Prior knowledge:
Elements: H1 3-20, H2 27-37, H3 47-66, H4 68-76, H5 80-83, H6 89-117, H7 121-142, H8 156-166, H9 176-187, H10 191-216, H11 225-255, H12 259-277
Amino acid sequence: MDFLLFILKSIVLGIVEGITEFLPVSSTGHLRIFENLLHFESTNPNYVSMYTYVIQLGAIMAVVLLYWRKIKETIINFLPQKVGYEKSGFKFWFMIAIACVPGAILGILFDDLADKYLSGPYIVAAVLFLGAIWMIYAENKFRNNNLTKQKLSVTPKQALIIGAFQCLAIIPGMSRSASTIIGGWVSGLSTVVAAEFSFFLAIPVMFGMSFLKIIKLGGLNTMTGTEITALVVGFIVSFVVAVAVISKFIAYLKKKPLKGFAYYRMIFAVVVIAAGLLKLF
Length: 281
């Protein structure tokens, strides 16, 4: 294994993850495709799968950093007796917990099957394309442009709807961000509120999934020094890039529709299929 080449590939994948994690374009789908294009592989059969989940944590840590003031506020004001139920951290994290339930159940049941049977580049490309059509339809039908509603306040029913939509992200190429934002639209939230709720929802979801995957795949003790170094580099790069992307994405959502990302998904899907036909992976 060429150490420098392996690390360079990890840097590229970290950039891809940092850019795509919170955009409605499917970070998992992009990582699967770029891992194939870059021939990012190891003698350890579980390494690439573990790598994918761990560097996603780097991007999630960007949310913790950028929204730390809000997270800290929910911790300080956690008890309803102190500030009232609506303003309490308990209510906020209880809504997050409700939204986690559908994904946790279906994730445990079907995540491994999706990884095994739905991770091929052609399948991911097809899902990216079809998901783009769904995004355009959903935006035209459900998007709520009430940008005056900037407060992140979600009801149990809305949280459950968003959690149900998030289950679609089990399929590589669907996009957790796109699914949760559309779930927010369907439940009556504005785009910005839906996007920010999806950011916070990603914290327990991705930490939980990554922890389970690392345990299931054998942990870090099965890796070589080169593999661990690549993992750390990918984690750091995805974190730094995601920090830069999140605030720009929110600013974009305040002014423009998501259909631009849908068109990108379609173009990228066609490029991936063409690359496959040219035997590039």
